[in-house]
């Protein structure tokens, strides 16, 4: 199994408050990795650290290592890093321009030279499960789309620049069930072509869409592995309690060992 991104002893503090307490995590290439855990456990902070959005928060201190294809992310130009590691936020944030211009915005901004914009447009919208809904409205304002369509448009905009990794921070958090289903279809459709890391509070959603699952608690990784195994035979009581929808009654003791996904049996 190829690994595309790794963190080693990642610690992040905001002032005197340590949010992440030594995260060792390996992200598998071309797979969907879901991060779950109670509010305040550090999920979103971890996600934002992967493309250094944490740099934008005053007083943030990052220790440890984050690597992408073996390269140290801290040493990279953050703009170039964020092109390779795209981000989709909880609330849709389309630009006040047409659907077409939204999708192609990054392509044009990065000056990709002679590219087939029509091909990129259709491919990105198809992968985001949106093409059939907007192919006759490409020159309409993106702001006329529904909330679910706007979120999938933001996914298409991210995919258009061909990132290696797509980060998603609770992308279905503000959507209705029908829109959530379409969004999940788009995430599942990315498997193989893109590496996806998604933070979600929806445990059933994590089970439906992810290949690997990381359970965070109090700034640490309690357990990480193949999603099916964690649901069927978790190794920690806290994992079992959380994934079954109950409260974590005993704070888990986390051993300081690297969290790496197991090989999936063929």
Task: Describe the overall structure.
- The chain has 266 residues and is α/β, with parallel strands linked by helices.
- Helices cover 33% and strands 25% of the residues.
- It contains 10 helices and 10 strands.
- It has helices at residues 43-49, 78-84, 99-109, 117-127, 131-134, 147-159, 177-190, 203-209, 227-232, 237-243; strands at residues 3-14, 17-28, 32-36, 60-68, 71-72, 85-88, 165-169, 195-199, 212-217, 220-226.
- It has a 6-stranded mixed β-sheet with strand order 6-7-8-3-9-10, sandwiched between helices. Strands 2-1-4-5 form a 4-stranded antiparallel β-sheet, covered by helices on one side.
- A hairpin with a 2-residue loop joins strand 9 (212-217) and strand 10 (220-226).
- Helix 3 crosses helix 4 (117-127), helix 3 (99-109) runs parallel beside helix 6 (147-159) and helix 4 packs across helix 6 (147-159).
- The longest helix has 14 residues, at 177-190.
- The chain is globular, with a radius of gyration of 18 Å.
- It starts with a strand and ends in a 23-residue tail after the last helix.
Compact overview of the structure:
The protein has helices at residues 43-49, 78-84, 99-109, 117-127, 131-134, 147-159, 177-190, 203-209, 227-232, 237-243; strands at 3-14, 17-28, 32-36, 60-68, 71-72, 85-88, 165-169, 195-199, 212-217, 220-226. The protein has 266 residues and is of the alpha/beta class.
Any descriptors?
266 residues, globular, alpha/beta, 4-stranded antiparallel sheet, 33% helix, 10 strands, 10 helices
Can you lay out the helices and strands and say which pair or pack?
Elements: E1 3-14, E2 17-28, E3 32-36, H1 43-49, E4 60-68, E5 71-72, H2 78-84, E6 85-88, H3 99-109, H4 117-127, H5 131-134, H6 147-159, E7 165-169, H7 177-190, E8 195-199, H8 203-209, E9 212-217, E10 220-226, H9 227-232, H10 237-243
